[in-house]
Amino acid sequence: MSILSRAVGRAFEGEPRERQRLLLVNHIILLLLVAFALMPLLVLAFNAVKSNAEIGLNPLGFPQSFHLENFANAWEQGEFATTAANSAFLVVATVGLELLLAGMAAYALARRKPPGSDGFMFYMVVASTIPIWLYIVPLFFMWRTLGLLNSRLGMVLIYTAMNAPLAIFLLRSYMISLSSEIEDAARVDGANEWQVLTRIVLPLTWPGFLTVGLVVGLAVWGEFQIALIFTSDPKMFPVTTSFFKFTDRFSRDWSLTSAGAVLMIFPVLLLFLALQRRFIEGLTQGGLKA
Amino acid sequence: MSREVAKSQSEIIRPPTEQADTRRLRISARTRYRLIHNVTIPWLFILPLLLLHVFVVAIPALTGVYYALTEWSGIGEATFIGLENFRRIIFEDMAFRRALGNNIIWLAFFLTVPFVLALLASSLLARVKRGGLIYRTALFIPYLLPSVVTATIWRNLLSPRMGIGAQLANLAIPGLDIAFLGRSDTALLAIAFVDNWHFWGFLMVLFLTAMQSIPMELYDAARIDGANRWQEFRHVTLPGIRPVVLFMLMLTAIWSFLVFEYIWILTQGGPAGASEVLGTQVFKNAFNRFEAGYGAAQGVTISMFAGLIVLVFIILRRRGWEI
User: Fold this and answer.
1) How many beta-carbon contacts under 8 Å exist across A and B?
2) Which residue of B has its CA nearest to A15?
3) Quick one: how many helices (H) and strands (E) in chain A?
4) Predicted complex ipTM
């Protein structure tokens, strides 16, 4: 809050008095909205370090004692060792496969534009509007036939396909926005296409890849619906569905479930605060680029 | 030119039959090179992603339309029954009708509440020069949370015994210590409230980005004309971000028919079907009740609603959005 009040103070410097008064109203309303957005998270963090007895007496306020063992208990009871590893695998594999496949496709579309490119983009635009309920039922039975239920590969393939339109829109427009002169120079010097891609294009376009990787990674880490339908073996659960079962089992143990929730969102918030410009850019442009 | 010369020279030297062969070969080698370079290799780069997407989305979507016309438990052969499933959806299935009603309530909620909040916050924030980024970050953070975490936070905060309502009751503000998620008259709106808490910051950032690309001169001109803040918003800001707002209205409307996660996590459609939506219906029929054919038909129906929204959007855009 002190950062915010300092920001409020700074915002008044050099503004004419009448506009200052108007801006004060702006800041008051915005601070209320920030409180609405962040207070619930603050309560979650407080409850994660309280004992259950304390939560019973003081369910919303600042903690009187710090029970850091809640995190260890939640890690243990929530089987985070298994599920966090599952989710980490899904995130890494999906992001890797997505960047590889969408990166190749985006490169071909942006630089070569073979006949049929427009058709492909049209397919992707239409496909990105196909509601999940249209294909999820047959997909489930198809995956069962192929033995891809409760399988990491099965999940990674679905996640990669579902995020393909977004990845292709972002990467293609990113590559188009970069000049191709350096690539042409490398070709004149005798580089083949693969070398052009790996030595010239990737080093220049990595910010685009980072953005797509963050957006896709975030989506996979928090994904619930596909995981709910395509995994039934607890050993295969990602953090989300496992946490869902966990909160059901320990619905009265707020300190344990709050600590588990903090474990789940901690890596996300850390990464977001470190790379927030890319996150916001990717999340906001992804939907509008089509 | 040089090609012509080469051709005439070879005509002189070689006998007629052989000469025709070489010419065809030479052209085809050139074409083949161009073909490989400009068509084959690029398509080899595109195909893996395309095939994966067709395999995971397009083929199941098409088979979904077929299964919608069958009676099928998900195991064994599907029996073709024509439009019987759709007849059942339209005329018999009361649960589906109730779910559709809830989707429409959800739609009304999400086309208003998050948009008003986001427009308010983004127009206030667009004027803040210093510290604006901190506000933006803070308001965006809920959008990053996984749905299961958001749901857990608010299940606790909405608890009648220990949540916000209970604390307010302790402070002599009664009436809010009720089980919002457990009562049939409040469950659906309570879930919408929770989902919106997570969602509206995303809209806000989209609108803010769009507002920042409105030329400052327009605001200066409005100010010279003596416009107050509401007139500025109404005649400069809103027209400036209109494409983004309309596009997000369309997307939000589509999402409103697909909603599933928050409802499943918080109430699973309960109590007594009070928060049932189309998505939870498909899920239950296809995966719990062994009515995969009927579930697929409901999935097709949902998709038709989504398609209808896209259609309305396209028609309005053709007419230049002069609503």
Assistant:
1) 275
2) B129
3) 15, 0
4) 0.87
